[in-house]
Records
---
Amino acid sequence: MPPADYRIEPLTVARSGRHSNSHQSYSCAVWDTSPACESGAMATPAPMPIKLLQSLTAGFFSTIRRIYDASADWIDDRPRLAAWFQHPAAPGSAYRTHNGRMFADYHEQERMLADQPRMNFYHAAISRYIHPGDRVIDLGTGTGILAAFAARQGADKVYALDHSAIIKDAQILATDNQVEAVEFVATHSTAFTGIEPVDVILHEQMGDGLFDEDMVANVTDLRDRLLKPGGRIIPSNFEFYCEPVKIHDHRCVPFIWELNVHGYDYSALDRHRPQESSYYQMTSCDQNLVECFLGQPTPVLTMDLHTIEESALPHEIVFSRTILRSGRLDGFAIYFRTSVDVDLSLSSNPIDPQRAPHWGFRILRTEQAEFTQGDEIRITLTVGQWPDSDTWRWRYEKLPAA
Ligand SMILES: C[S@@+](CC[C@H](N)C(=O)[O-])C[C@H]1O[C@@H](n2cnc3c(N)ncnc32)[C@H](O)[C@@H]1O
């Protein structure tokens, strides 16, 4: 039977901690599957004035919501303006709201759940490292999938936390799948308290740039308050990469002032370089974007969540690469790798065919420069706040081969 009612709604996904294919607005049909419609029963029509009032009210709130959704990140980026909209007593609250909203979206969940390397990694890691009788916190349970894996391993109790409305769906799914050892708690993890310390903290809090979803702050907060001495964090070992790359010629997009299109020269725009740091970065999931690394990839930062303190993360990293493959430098690729064993890891490496495909990798753009095998490149990455890549700056020096 055709649906009794559908409407076309624009879906807009704002800046995310991980790359979304749905950055552009698009339309989708929203089906009304209320029992009355499914059974074909006719609802009693509301008198006209009420309907009109309903429609005007709905239109008003929908407009307010769209304006808010469209401007929330823009406001976040302007602290002086944000002070008019956000209570100073709640630092980070705008990001939390954004994060909670983003993960309430089924498409975000679909992309993560359909990412086979991701799901295989977590399934294997939980099978190996969660034991019968364990008490577990699943930090950011989403649809509850990792909590369910842990429960199926025989965990005695899993506290599944989430600050997003998606937790209601997680509860429905657990009941439907007869998962009983899980207690769902609708909360931000920093407000979760009142239990005995647990054996395991399970989490998936990695953003495209590893740190964007406040992984280090969220996990270490729970670790310090609610993990038993000697307890496990899954996953805990991380490598962060920043590698000079060449982008495939047909996919390469230089800065506008570098362009000359059939003799039409854009170099005059050199004097009008944009000031927004977001212009100098791009994020992609596309495995056909990066042609090669110019040097040998090596992590520029490694950490173990069992021991790291957020305050100990460096604010400047200086490192060098010897150029192994002559070619053009287009930027530095930011990606991560996490492992729980020598044979069990997960990576967002832009040219690894086994990469977890739903994560984006980030390109910190540079002006194009040619490098020859044997040249040395010395790169400096400075970081204001790790979770906010708009506070990152990068520069490099070229040291020609002797
Ligand atoms: C990347 S999703 C992972 C979902 C699920 N664990 C999975 O693997 O499919 C991260 C989830 O963590 C939630 N989240 C992020 N930070 C949180 C926090 N500090 N406290 C509670 N939930 C959080 C988000 O709402 C989101 O549902």
Note: The chain has nine helices and 19 strands.
---
Amino acid sequence: MQSLEGRASQLLDCCCIDRCALLERTFFGMKSMDKNELLETLKRSILATEKTDFLKKLSEIGPCHQSVVFNDDFRIPGIWNPLHLSEMLFRGLPEDHWEGKRVLDLGANSGGLTLELMKRGARCVAVEYKREYYEQMMFWKKYFDISDDLLEVHHDTLFNSNKLGKFDIVLGLGLAYHFRNISSFLDYLHTITCTHFFISTQLMAGDGLVAVNRKEFHPKSRLPVLGWHVTNNLFINMLEDSGFENIRVLDEDIAKCGWESIPMGLTNNGYYFVEKNTNVIDFSAKNMKFL
Ligand SMILES: C[S@@+](CC[C@H](N)C(=O)[O-])C[C@H]1O[C@@H](n2cnc3c(N)ncnc32)[C@H](O)[C@@H]1O
């Protein structure tokens, strides 16, 4: 990926002589600057103009939900923080864990988390079915001239992703609670060629094996079923039932609280790292629609 710094230098290479001459004229007699100061000022002003232009064009696509962090002072603002999300996934794993891995990010939104994984050396495939999020991601992919080898972006339903090849890690984050049938979603994930999965959902508090229609929390919705909030215990049972094992709850404390107390910047309170139980072979057969 070409860095912002690189783009600025490239621009400087192309046009600094004319612009320096212009600036020297502008500042002549008002403030003396040596050549280096002038170049730094020019660089900052090019960066600021580029950033403003970039963010303006991006906002024309629509508001971003997931923030995207290019560097400390250049980010797309959003309510979900990819640094918090990635911190959750990075827990307990060595820094080089993602290096060279092929990672599938399902429901990738504006791609903020995908970018964090790329910063750790992953080659990512992002699937997002809502057009505006897909376009936001394509916009920054093109802007930074990122090759398909490093980042593939698909505007598609995640239910086609078992055709995308083999992965080292699959992320199914912030999805389960939206579906009419959580187990069908988990059964489908199990059909993707991969051994390790990060899966997250919004949980309700309590120890019982209980699910509540999310309609209860959004009574004005015209939909009779809005997806499900389940307890941590029930979700673990569902994961096992769909053929996952070695289930690790990444943060036991927030998984115990209700979804109402999800920490700022996260989308969910139940985060799990699981492995596929390869002895279980035919879960998809239970759900004919996915065959
Ligand atoms: C709650 S957001 C979670 C975003 C991100 N994965 C995270 O955890 O922060 C759910 C995202 O999944 C996308 N999505 C929902 N259903 C999908 C589907 N069937 N296929 C692909 N993307 C889907 C939504 O458009 C949205 O961007």
Note: Helices lie at 4-27, 35-61, 82-90, 112-119, 131-143, 182-190, 232-241, 252-256.
